[in-house]
Amino acid sequence: MNPKKAELPSLPIHSTRHTHAVLQLEAGASMKYIQERLGHGSMQITADVYSHVSKKIEHDTMDKFEEHMKNVLE
How many CB atoms lie within 10 A of CB 41? Predict the structure, then answer.
């Protein structure tokens, strides 16, 4: 399908790489796995670029924290 016919914006290839890395994080992949998959020399590089908090990661983290606190308070 031609992106222009679908009226989709063109994206630089780096955008798809970034999206892939963030989706991997949201799915629970380890930073080490993502570092190796992207070919970065260190996890620090990967973390610096890709570890910003997405809405899904924020929501999932808060759910885990709330569940943890319920267990602590019981």
Answer: 8
The answer to whether residues 34 and 45 touch, using CB atoms and an 8 Å cutoff, is no
pLDDT in tens, 39-56: 999 999 998 888 777 888
Tell me, yes or no, if the pTM score tops 0.70: no
Give the contacts of 3 (CB within 8 A, at least 6 positions apart).
9, 10
Q: Which amino acid is at 15?
A: S
Q: What are phi and psi of 41, to 5 degrees?
A: -70, -20
Taking CA atoms, 33 is separated from 7, 17, 47, in Å, by: 34, 14, 12
